[in-house]
Amino acid sequence: MPDGEALMRHPVQAGDMREVILAPAPMTPQVERLEACAGQTIAQILTQAVRQGLLAAEDLYRTEVYVDGQVFEDRAAALDYAPAAGELVNIAVVPHGGGGGRGNKVLQTILTIAIIAVSVWVGGATGPLAGVMGKGLTNALVRTAAAAAVTVAGAAATNALFGPKGQANNQAQGRDRYGLTGQSNQGRPRQSMPLVLGKRRVWFDLCSSAYTSTLGEDVYLHAIFGVHYGPCVVEELKLGETLVANFEAGEVEIEAFLEPGPRQSALYPMRTVQESYTDQLEDEVWITHTTADDAERIEVDFAWPAGLYYVNEKGKTLETHAHVAIQIRPAAGGDWAWANIENQVGPEPGAMIFNAASKDPLRRTAIVIPPEKGQWDIRVTKAPGFVGEGTTTDQVFWTALRSLEAKTPIIDETLSVIFAKFKATGTINGTVPAMSAVVEPIVPVLAGDGWETEAPSSNAAALARWLLTGPAAAMPLAPEEIDASCATAYSLIEEREWQGGLLLAGDASQEDALVALGRMGRFSTYWNGQALCFVTDWEKPLPRQMFTGRNVQGYRYRRSFPEAVHAVRVEYDNIEKDCRPDELVVFNDGQDATTAELYETLSLDYATTPDRAYREGRVYLAKLQLTPESHEWTASADGLASTYGDRVLVRHSSALIGLGEARVLFRRWSGGLVSGVRLDQPVIMEAGKAYEIDVRRPDGVVRAIPVQGGEG
Predict the structure, then answer these.
(1) SS3 for 39-73, per residue?
(2) Helix (H) and strand (E) counts for the chain?
(3) Pairing relationship of beta strands 599-608 and 567-574 according to DSSP bridges
(4) CA atoms of 253 and 365, how far apart (whole Å)
(5) Residue (of 226, 212, 608) closest to 421 by Cα position
(6) Strands, E, within 397-459: which ranges?
(7) 246 has a pLDDT exceeding 50
(8) Which tens digit of pLDDT belongs to each residue from 104-157?
(9) Distances in Å between the alpha carbon of 320 and those of 177, 234, 561, 648?
(10) Which of 127, 315, 585, 697 is 20 to 30 Å from 201 by CA-CA measure?
């Protein structure tokens, strides 16, 4: 602190006059003026102020002097100090009972007024406003500008002198304070967790209730998101439409568990159940709520949405307090007892005393440690606030009750989860946007001749194999119970680029999942009694069996004549656009947007690319055109050489398919080759037409053989 020796008097010019501008009330343009000669001391200026009625004489002995924010410890030296041009001198009047102590609470109560009302010195011709004079402004205008400068400088000096060290002043500063009220992602209690089959963007389910916490003036929301049942990889993690990587440090904290193992994180350390309320506390009126079962730690949240402060009769915002009491008893009944509050503020048991002078929303948490683990009733009330001539704002709400149990919140070590902690900021405020990511499961894939390699995959055959042999199956199959046709389907999907992304978020059976995967990978499955077989939706190179009038009964043939479809609208989730619903139109041959009139719709239930969606549209149009026929018949089981998914030949005279059916009685050989056959039924052939005979060999393979000659 300065003393009389450290603050030497500044040299002055003879006849130099100073004008001292006094503001009787804070933040007002009305000013009083007195003239002081250059070199006058503080004592002389104060004496002159008393003579002009600007300062009460009885207040002189209680003044303290500050120069540029530093107090004079030596009062005699302070009164003898002569201010220099450009210096800011503040004189505070210590209230009665203040003694010699200069505690912030005593001086700050009157300082804003004292600084301005008692004495603020403004330099004259050599002061900080001297340069303005040279620009043609009158002395009166300079004085008015000086008064405004004094008012602002006085308020700034108040904060500089008495603001808490290392933090913002606790009076209302208009600082933005943010809160979090919930999470956009939804939970589905007692329902199955999501199963991601293929690469796609997924909006996560909450797999534990989200809860809030308060640290100082900062509010956080804690959540656990279910990603996929099984190992997976996660890319492009987003909160709403913003990548998590683009948030400021500390706004979003993430810890992912994407492989089997324990799920324990400091971001959500205990099993937590939160109940949210909007219960306003009234003076000496108890409000009761009950915790969840097995609570070992209880947290009670309070909020002052309009702030906590006192405004005196002169309009000054001052500190006030709020007194909250908490009691506890077993939920089954019993006597109320004062709560054991871990972070208690105040000497009384079960009480929390909060002090503030803030017009911003405030949030505080009381941590209650119950006598033992269990379910408890908690009741809360408040004591009457400060009553004075001014106005007290202390409206308080009970906003949340959290029950914490010292157990890991996630028991299943197979479920891939993401622990998250969000900080309330200008970017994240109110309801936290939905969190999503591009997820691809890790499953065994075909490498060489085996399935030992695990890698991210969107191949429907690999996903179906994993679905039936992996952790998601209630009764998993052994690897040898998957037929070799699975490898065939896998290779065809890779070759034709039929990958996609399917999300099973509801209650679906294995059969439902296999059907959905089959649509995505163009295959179907069936159980042949020993293994699961895969049938690809693709033309087989050779027919496996031939059916004719000789080996079937009850043959029926149908043919439809649908109107030609001009185009198909393909609805799908576009993986190139964050799996948002999309649509494209595929036109039939010879049609375009100007000619097409008859449209149909094809809905794909998996995420894919626009190219794949277009190809599916073309296949749909081709099937409408090329599969108008249906055949039905009955055949004996011992005569079946084909099975589900095989290609067969149908030759039946009732449908005018072929000239007839017959058995080969014997063959004619020539040079080691068959040159002719004799049938058990006559067949009439016409001249000028080409014929062939479909022969089923002993190995079951059907082969078409051209017939040379034989007219008639």
Answers:
(1) CCCHHHHHHHHHHCCCCCHHHHHHEEEEECCEECC
(2) 9, 44
(3) parallel
(4) 22
(5) 212
(6) 397-405, 415-423, 430-432, 435-447, 450-456
(7) yes
(8) 333 332 333 233 333 333 333 333 323 333 333 333 333 333 333 333 333 333
(9) 20, 50, 87, 91
(10) 585
